[in-house]
Amino acid sequence: MQWSMPHRVLQVVASLIVLVALSAFTLGVVNAPQRGRMPGEKVDGASGAAPLAATDAVALGQDRIEGLAPRELTPEEKEKAEAAKEAKQEADEAARAEAATTPEAQAAAVAPPKPPVVVPAEAPPPPPAADEAPH
Prior knowledge:
Layout (H helix, E strand, L loop, with lengths): L6 H25 L30 H5 L8 H26 L2 H8 L25
Protein backbone atom coordinates (compact mmCIF):
# COMPACT_ATOMS: atom_id res chain seq x y z
CA MET A 1 0.00 0.00 0.00
CA GLN A 2 1.28 3.46 -0.85
CA TRP A 3 1.41 5.99 1.97
CA SER A 4 2.06 9.68 1.64
CA MET A 5 4.64 9.54 4.45
CA PRO A 6 7.68 7.36 4.92
CA HIS A 7 7.11 4.15 6.88
CA ARG A 8 9.41 5.21 9.72
CA VAL A 9 7.40 8.44 10.30
CA LEU A 10 4.18 6.41 10.52
CA GLN A 11 5.79 4.13 13.13
CA VAL A 12 6.88 7.12 15.23
CA VAL A 13 3.40 8.70 15.09
CA ALA A 14 1.74 5.40 16.01
CA SER A 15 4.07 4.87 18.96
CA LEU A 16 3.38 8.44 20.20
CA ILE A 17 -0.37 7.80 20.06
CA VAL A 18 0.04 4.54 22.02
CA LEU A 19 2.28 6.31 24.57
CA VAL A 20 -0.28 9.08 25.13
CA ALA A 21 -3.14 6.55 25.52
CA LEU A 22 -1.20 4.45 28.04
CA SER A 23 -0.12 7.49 30.06
CA ALA A 24 -3.71 8.80 30.19
CA PHE A 25 -4.95 5.42 31.43
CA THR A 26 -2.18 5.24 34.04
CA LEU A 27 -2.91 8.75 35.33
CA GLY A 28 -6.61 7.89 35.58
CA VAL A 29 -5.88 4.79 37.64
CA VAL A 30 -3.40 6.60 39.92
CA ASN A 31 -5.72 9.55 40.61
CA ALA A 32 -8.85 7.45 41.21
CA PRO A 33 -10.14 7.38 44.81
CA GLN A 34 -9.30 4.31 46.88
CA ARG A 35 -12.93 3.35 47.35
CA GLY A 36 -15.75 4.24 45.01
CA ARG A 37 -19.18 5.28 46.26
CA MET A 38 -22.70 4.89 44.99
CA PRO A 39 -24.75 7.91 43.88
CA GLY A 40 -26.21 9.67 46.90
CA GLU A 41 -23.68 8.14 49.29
CA LYS A 42 -21.95 10.65 51.58
CA VAL A 43 -18.26 11.40 51.12
CA ASP A 44 -15.97 10.13 53.89
CA GLY A 45 -13.80 13.07 54.93
CA ALA A 46 -13.21 16.40 53.22
CA SER A 47 -11.58 15.01 50.08
CA GLY A 48 -14.81 15.36 48.08
CA ALA A 49 -16.00 18.51 46.37
CA ALA A 50 -18.02 20.92 48.48
CA PRO A 51 -21.70 21.27 47.58
CA LEU A 52 -22.65 24.33 45.61
CA ALA A 53 -23.88 27.32 47.55
CA ALA A 54 -26.20 29.25 45.25
CA THR A 55 -27.08 32.41 47.14
CA ASP A 56 -29.30 33.85 44.41
CA ALA A 57 -31.35 30.70 43.83
CA VAL A 58 -35.09 31.08 44.25
CA ALA A 59 -37.60 28.25 44.44
CA LEU A 60 -40.14 28.08 41.65
CA GLY A 61 -43.46 29.64 42.49
CA GLN A 62 -46.65 27.68 42.01
CA ASP A 63 -47.57 29.76 38.95
CA ARG A 64 -44.25 28.82 37.32
CA ILE A 65 -44.97 25.13 37.91
CA GLU A 66 -48.63 25.05 36.85
CA GLY A 67 -48.59 27.96 34.43
CA LEU A 68 -50.36 31.26 34.71
CA ALA A 69 -54.07 31.23 35.40
CA PRO A 70 -56.13 32.33 32.39
CA ARG A 71 -56.99 36.00 32.62
CA GLU A 72 -60.52 37.28 32.37
CA LEU A 73 -61.52 38.64 28.96
CA THR A 74 -62.56 42.25 28.69
CA PRO A 75 -66.05 43.04 27.35
CA GLU A 76 -64.54 44.20 24.03
CA GLU A 77 -62.61 40.92 23.65
CA LYS A 78 -65.75 38.94 24.50
CA GLU A 79 -67.70 40.82 21.81
CA LYS A 80 -64.97 40.20 19.24
CA ALA A 81 -64.87 36.49 20.07
CA GLU A 82 -68.66 36.21 19.86
CA ALA A 83 -68.71 38.08 16.53
CA ALA A 84 -65.98 35.82 15.14
CA LYS A 85 -67.89 32.71 16.27
CA GLU A 86 -71.10 33.96 14.62
CA ALA A 87 -69.27 34.84 11.40
CA LYS A 88 -67.75 31.35 11.31
CA GLN A 89 -71.16 29.74 11.81
CA GLU A 90 -72.66 31.86 9.02
CA ALA A 91 -69.80 30.98 6.68
CA ASP A 92 -70.24 27.26 7.46
CA GLU A 93 -73.98 27.46 6.79
CA ALA A 94 -73.37 29.35 3.50
CA ALA A 95 -70.83 26.71 2.44
CA ARG A 96 -73.30 23.91 3.20
CA ALA A 97 -76.03 25.70 1.22
CA GLU A 98 -73.64 26.23 -1.69
CA ALA A 99 -72.62 22.58 -1.63
CA ALA A 100 -76.27 21.51 -1.62
CA THR A 101 -76.99 23.51 -4.81
CA THR A 102 -74.23 21.92 -6.91
CA PRO A 103 -75.35 19.52 -9.67
CA GLU A 104 -73.50 16.59 -8.08
CA ALA A 105 -75.26 17.09 -4.75
CA GLN A 106 -78.67 17.40 -6.43
CA ALA A 107 -78.08 14.23 -8.47
CA ALA A 108 -77.01 12.37 -5.34
CA ALA A 109 -80.15 13.53 -3.52
CA VAL A 110 -82.47 12.40 -6.38
CA ALA A 111 -80.76 9.12 -7.31
CA PRO A 112 -81.68 6.08 -5.21
CA PRO A 113 -78.82 4.54 -3.29
CA LYS A 114 -77.05 1.66 -5.03
CA PRO A 115 -77.46 -1.76 -3.46
CA PRO A 116 -74.28 -3.16 -1.91
CA VAL A 117 -72.26 -5.52 -4.07
CA VAL A 118 -72.20 -9.03 -2.65
CA VAL A 119 -69.15 -11.08 -3.56
CA PRO A 120 -69.71 -14.84 -3.20
CA ALA A 121 -67.31 -16.41 -0.75
CA GLU A 122 -64.95 -19.08 -2.01
CA ALA A 123 -65.65 -22.63 -1.00
CA PRO A 124 -63.40 -23.90 1.79
CA PRO A 125 -60.65 -26.29 0.72
CA PRO A 126 -61.48 -29.97 1.01
CA PRO A 127 -60.30 -31.72 4.18
CA PRO A 128 -57.06 -33.71 3.91
CA ALA A 129 -57.24 -37.36 3.18
CA ALA A 130 -57.32 -39.71 6.15
CA ASP A 131 -54.03 -41.37 5.21
CA GLU A 132 -52.21 -38.03 4.86
CA ALA A 133 -50.15 -36.88 7.85
CA PRO A 134 -51.13 -33.55 9.45
CA HIS A 135 -48.77 -30.61 8.88
